[in-house]
Design a protein that fits this description.
- By secondary structure, this protein is of the alpha+beta class.
- The protein has 2 helices and 6 strands, in the order βαββαβββ.
- The chain has a domain of 56 residues.
- Strands 2-3-1-6 form a 4-stranded antiparallel sheet. Strands 4-5 form a two-stranded antiparallel sheet.
């Protein structure tokens, strides 16, 4: 289990401070980042939270996967490194 978590299906109104505050319910948070569009600066509906240890990361997944926030159910799981991401048609 890694310490960095992917958080998907975020309401577009969610900021870093709100995301960090939510996940602090599972333990200390090292960082929280909402990913934004590079051209418009608008949130893209997902982000990343880094917990201080593996135990708290697992607790956060248990607590917040399918958690309702702003009318949406969050998707929370262990973040995968960028180089592990593969998509159809990519080479």
């Amino acid at each position: 289990m890694g310490k960095k978590l992917y958080v998907g299906n975020l309401p577009f109104s969610t900021g870093e401070a709100e995301l960090q505050q939510l996940f602090e319910g599972a333990g200390p948070v090292e960082s929280a980042k909402v990913v934004r569009d590079g051209q418009t600066g608008q949130p893209r509906g997902f982000g990343f939270v880094e917990m201080t240890n593996d135990e708290d990361a697992q607790k956060a997944i248990s607590m917040f996967h399918e958690h309702a926030l702003g009318g949406r159910n969050l998707a929370v799981n262990e973040a995968r490194p960028k180089n592990d991401l593969t998509g159809a048609g990519r080479r």
